[in-house]
Amino acid sequence: ERCVLEGHAPSARDVAKGFCLGCPVRPELEERGDLATATERIADEMARRLGEGPISGPLAFVVLEATKAA
Question: I want to staple 16 with a disulfide (CB 3.0 to 4.6 A). Which of 6, 33, 43, 60 is the partner?
Fold first, then answer.
């Protein structure tokens, strides 16, 4: 089942840091060079595009249910 909730964050910078440091994209960033520098550059760009204040937007996810076969 696909679900969508409204997400809120104190800033675009916080979203960028969470994305870069806390999801599967982190190893990809680390392979490309300094993680801290990449994270800061992404945070700067997101803040430039979305502003410095609080942000909100849709968060989509899929709920799956599994049962063990008998």
Answer: 43
